[in-house]
Design brief:
It is built from five helices and five strands. By secondary structure, the protein is an alpha/beta fold. α4 packs across α5.
């Protein structure tokens, strides 16, 4: 999706295909996007998220699944280093969660520190001006709380640890550096 092409400014091992249907000049195209075209197939599959995504191409079973991003050059506000950054919405949850419940969990993690909630303007939340800004904030926040697979994947590339509110095992991105909080709501 074009809205994520800003990530390619932080990688040097691949580049986006844009416009999406222009395949000229490429000897190989690997599309790992499940939403929306493959979502129903994924839900019907017995595979979890990572196994399904990496099973979309033959070499996927042997690939190192750790996402690698170069650190964005964006400088964030110094006070961010004492804040908890929370992403209270997501598309991939089996059982949709009220963003207020995620925000409440973030405040528990924050233990009195300020909580900055970010998401999509369409959800009535503050939205980063670019994915590079979002990545810089994920990198620099004192703590990050995710519910969404995509923000959890970015955190795995940008942080030593973060808190992830667990969804179903099938739809969840898991990583050894996550501190998982099981849903209580």
């Amino acid at each position: 999706m074009a809205e994520y092409h800003g990530l390619f400014a932080m990688v040097d091992y691949c580049k986006p295909l844009y416009p999406q249907n222009d395949h000229s000049g490429f000897h190989r195209i690997i599309n790992l996007q499940i939403w929306p075209d493959l979502h129903e197939d994924f839900c019907a599959s017995p595979l979890g998220w990572s196994d399904y995504v990496y099973g979309l191409f033959p070499e996927g079973k042997d690939i190192d699944r750790q996402i690698v991003l170069n650190s964005p050059a964006i400088v964030t506000p110094p006070e961010l280093r004492s804040w908890v950054l929370c992403f209270p919405t997501g598309y991939s949850q089996d059982k949709k969660i009220d963003p207020r419940d995620v925000i409440a969990a973030a405040h528990q993690v924050a233990n009195g520190r300020p909580v900055l909630c970010a998401g999509k303007a369409a959800h009535g939340m503050a939205e980063f001006e670019s994915i590079e800004y979002m990545c810089a904030y994920i990198r620099d926040a004192n703590e990050v709380v995710t519910i969404n697979t995509s923000t959890s994947i970015l955190a795995s590339a940008l942080r030593k640890s973060w808190v992830h509110i667990a969804d179903s095992p099938k739809h969840d991105f898991t990583h050894p550096n996550q501190r998982r909080v099981e849903r209580k709501f």
